[in-house]
Amino acid sequence: MGRFHLFEIEDQPWCPRVLRDALTDYLRFVMDRFEPYAPAVPLLADALERLGETRVVDLCSGGGGPWLSLLRRLRAEGRTGVRVRLTDYYPNRPAFQRLHEESGGAIDGNDEPVDATDVPAHLDGLLTLFTALHHFRPDAARRILQGAVRRGRGIAVFEATRRSPVALLGMVFFSLGVLVFTPFVRPFRWSRLFWTYIIPLVPLLAWFDATVSCLRTYTPAELRALAAALGATEYRWESGMVRASRLLMPVTYLIGLPVKGAGPGGVRFKTSTAEAP
């Protein structure tokens, strides 16, 4: 299935904030409860270990994504000092504040908008993107990777969506979940109930944007091509797919870490055996 770079409503400047925040809050709820990014934890822990880093700068964070559950799992693996800075072009400040409180201060939010293609120099640490790189066309995606390389930062990209008929079908159930789980999403908002049950724009928005996300998701081979085009000889890249169980969609990933003195052999790719054909 070819890649189609269609538009997502949530990305558009004209999308009302009340709908955008309702969707990103729901996404955070799903990620925290069902933990689709659990397979990313060993990869994250290894990247932080190899970098000797405890700081993470999360790009395109939306409502905070999977970070509350990821921190729990990282702590279980002994990485207790990790601190996360959430950033977004449209920062969901109430969600960021709630995660700051629930994480005991380990998660902070950046109040000012951050462009993932031009990350400010003062935001230092391992750069991460969860369910986000597909929002960018190839030239912009390369700029994100190039920005990390230019400043000598590690970068880790993870996508729980996929271009496949099964994934597209799964997005129908994902959007129906809005009707089931909205009363349990926090912080509670009457507006979220109104736009879910009285005028059901949130479930429709969830279905449309999730479907488009699948159609825009890069394959591991496409991610490797983006990284290879940078010609970064002192970086090592790993890409592939991993999954926690057959009941969950596989997670596609690309990780790039600086390796001093790597020379021409520094550009390499390690592909997970879980990658699908």
Quick recap of the structure?
Helix content is 41%, strand content 15%.
CATH topology: Rossmann fold
Number of domains: 1
Determine the strand fraction and express it as a percent band: 5-15%
CATH superfamily: Vaccinia Virus protein VP39
Q: Biggest sheet, strands in spatial order?
A: 3-2-1-4-5-7-6-8
Give the C-alpha Rg.
18 Å
As a percent range, the share of helical residues equals 40-55%
Largest sheet: 8 strands, mixed
Q: So how many helices?
A: 9
Euclidean distance between termini CA atoms = 12 Å
Instruction: Identify the overall geometry.
Output: globular
Order of helices and strands: HHEHEHEEHEHHHHEEE
CATH class assignment: Alpha Beta
Helices and strands: which structural class? alpha/beta
Beta strand count = 8
What is the second-level CATH architecture?
3-Layer(aba) Sandwich
Would you identify the regions where 5 or more consecutive residues have pLDDT less than 50?
262-268, 273-277
Mean pLDDT: 91
Structure description:
The protein is an alpha/beta fold. It has helices spanning 17-34, 40-51, 67-76, 93-102, 138-150, 165-181, 190-198, 201-216, 220-228, and strands at 55-59, 83-86, 107-109, 126-130, 155-159, 235-242, 251-258, 269-271. The protein contains 9 helices and 8 strands. An 8-stranded mixed beta sheet has the order 3-2-1-4-5-7-6-8, sandwiched between helices. Strand 1, helix 3 (67-76) and strand 2 form a beta-alpha-beta unit. The longest helix is centred in the N-terminal third of the chain and has 18 residues, at 17-34. The protein is globular, with a radius of gyration of 18 Å. Mean pLDDT is 91; it is low at 262-268 and 273-277.
